[in-house]
């Protein structure tokens, strides 16, 4: 019986493994040039890390288990929580901001489908502890440049949660998760029905999430001002009705203050937008982008790419606060995660691998061939026969492997100090010294 790989996992043969490695190196080159340093976290963590962040329902979506000591553990379903756990325990007292990036495999227990696997890879970056607009603009521009390093130009949509959070206060905390999920999933009809049922359809939420494009920000400011005026009237009438109830008047005043604060925070979002324009980033302002997760707090963004069908999102991120949730000091952070597997579906990378040089030898000079191969491998890739084949069979094996060059070594070549270098593509061959062969091959492989 031939054993198969587990459902939702993949094998990567040499050509695909090379493509993935080349793409990763290109992306990491950009991250390094922006001053981000690589980190790594364990493949499994305490289950509590993910339930604290995402709630108990996440258990149904992940691989969780008890170890032999009875501890509840889980294979990581994402990397933001592990990175922030590491920051709180290891880097909280280090100078800020911290610029970190990661690449690793993650695991989700879900139905495998095109572009979605139970084992998948994420590449991402976190800017921890920076000023909000500056950090947001840098991270979004970095995500854009990271994708461009593999010739992927994504469609960037950015949104702002400040005003939406203020509207959530009026809607009521018990409805907030449902509303945010509906916005994130673009379930417009269901959202309209819910707002109508709870008497919140007058708050301008549907109008706000409809805002997209160049004038979206100015219109959002108008909505904030209009709602501020409504709240101010509500607070005044409430104060009069209570005839001196300072507690109720204070609550009404606080609600108004939250909206004023939201409008002021839009100025921060405007600064982020201006900085993105300075970076030369092409984007669309889109107030329907909310990410659907409670820990996001400021600017959020998503990047989409063509050629992936309906599931075309390849990147998501924004400003969030998780450090305090994991026992640390409250710290604003901005980051993004790239869906590496989806990106690899559309990346066009030219296969620039060079087949190794084959060193074919007669049995009587096997030890000498090993010594020569050792010396050559300091500069070029070299393959020695390990099958005990004759010289003719070795040459056939080199041709089958697509090798361009074969070095032929026998007793005569060894005694003369000149080896035969054969070009398998042209059939030409020369007798050259080791130094000449090293120079010729190093030029071809460009390893010097």
The CATH class label of the largest domain is: Alpha Beta
Largest sheet: 8 strands, mixed
Continuous helix count: 15
Task: State the secondary-structure class.
Answer: alpha+beta
The second-level CATH architecture of the largest domain is 2-Layer Sandwich
Instruction: Tell me the number of strands.
Output: 16
The percent range for helix content is: 40-55%
CATH third-level topology of the largest domain: BirA Bifunctional Protein, domain 2
Mean pLDDT: 87
CATH superfamily of the largest domain: Bira Bifunctional Protein, Domain 2
Provide the gyration radius in Å: 30 Å
Strand content: 15-25%
When the domains are counted, the total is: 2
The outline comes out as elongated
Through-space gap between termini: 48 Å
Question: Major sheet: order of its strands?
Answer: 1-5-6-11-10-9-7-8
Which stretches are poorly predicted, pLDDT < 50 over at least 5 residues?
229-260
Question: Overview of this structure, please?
Answer:
- The chain has 448 residues and is of the alpha+beta class.
- The chain is elongated, with a radius of gyration of 30 Å.
- It has two domains: 14-346, Bira Bifunctional Protein, Domain 2 (BirA Bifunctional Protein, domain 2); 357-445, Rossmann fold (3-Layer(aba) Sandwich).
- It has helices at 14-33, 47-54, 80-91, 132-148, 162-171, 176-184, 188-197, 205-209, 216-241, 246-279, 340-346, 366-376, 391-400, 411-416, 434-445; strands at 37-38, 44-46, 64-66, 72-75, 98-107, 119-128, 155-160, 283-285, 296-304, 313-320, 333-339, 357-361, 382-384, 405-409, 419-423, 429-432.
- Mean pLDDT is 87; it is low at 229-260.
């Amino acid at each position: 019986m031939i054993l198969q790989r587990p459902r939702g996992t993949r094998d990567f043969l040499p050509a695909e493994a090379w493509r993935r490695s080349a793409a990763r190196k290109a992306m990491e080159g950009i991250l390094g040039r922006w001053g981000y340093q690589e980190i790594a976290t364990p493949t499994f963590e305490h289950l509590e890390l993910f339930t604290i962040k995402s709630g108990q329902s996440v258990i149904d979506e992940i691989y969780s288990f008890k170890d032999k000591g009875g501890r509840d553990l889980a294979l990581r379903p994402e990397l933001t929580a592990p990175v922030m756990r590491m920051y709180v325990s290891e880097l909280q007292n280090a100078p800020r901001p911290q610029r970190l990036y990661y690449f690793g495999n993650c695991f989700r227990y879900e139905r495998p489908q095109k572009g979605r696997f139970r084992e998948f890879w994420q590449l991402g970056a976190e800017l921890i502890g920076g000023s909000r607009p500056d950090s947001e603009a840098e991270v979004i521009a970095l995500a854009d440049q990271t994708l461009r390093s593999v010739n992927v130009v994504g469609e960037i949509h950015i949104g702002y949660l400040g005003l939406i959070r203020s509207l959530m206060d009026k809607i009521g905390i018990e409805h907030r998760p449902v509303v945010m999920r509906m916005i994130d999933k673009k379930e417009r009809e269901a959202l309209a029905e819910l707002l109508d049922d709870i008497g919140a359809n007058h708050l301008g939420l549907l109008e706000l999430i409809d805002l997209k494009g160049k004038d979206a920000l100015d219109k959002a400011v108008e909505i904030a001002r209009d709602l501020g005026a409504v709240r101010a009237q509500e607070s005044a009438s409430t104060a009069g009705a209570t005839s001196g109830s300072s507690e109720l008047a204070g609550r009404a005043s606080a609600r108004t203050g939250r909206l004023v604060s939201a409008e002021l925070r839009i100025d921060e979002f405007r600064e982020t937008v201006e900085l993105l324009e300075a970076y030369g980033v092409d984007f669309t302002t889109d107030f329907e982008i909310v990410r659907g997760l409670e820990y996001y707090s400021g600017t959020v963004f998503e990047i989409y790419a063509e050629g992936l069908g309906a599931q075309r999102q390849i990147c998501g991120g924004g400003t969030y606060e998780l450090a305090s949730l994991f026992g640390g000091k409250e710290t604003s952070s901005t980051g993004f995660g790239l869906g590496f597997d989806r990106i690899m579906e559309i990346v066009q990378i030219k296969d620039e691998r060079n087949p190794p040089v084959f060193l074919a030898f007669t049995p009587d000079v096997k030890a000498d061939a090993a010594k020569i191969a050792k010396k050559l491998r300091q500069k070029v890739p070299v393959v020695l026969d390990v099958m005990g084949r004759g010289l003719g069979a070795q040459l056939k094996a080199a041709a089958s492997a697509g090798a361009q060059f074969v070095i032929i070594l026998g007793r005569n070549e060894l005694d003369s100090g000149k080896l035969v270098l054969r070009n398998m593509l042209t059939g030409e061959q020369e007798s050259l010294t080791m130094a000449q062969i090293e120079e010729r091959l190093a030029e071809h492989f460009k390893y010097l």
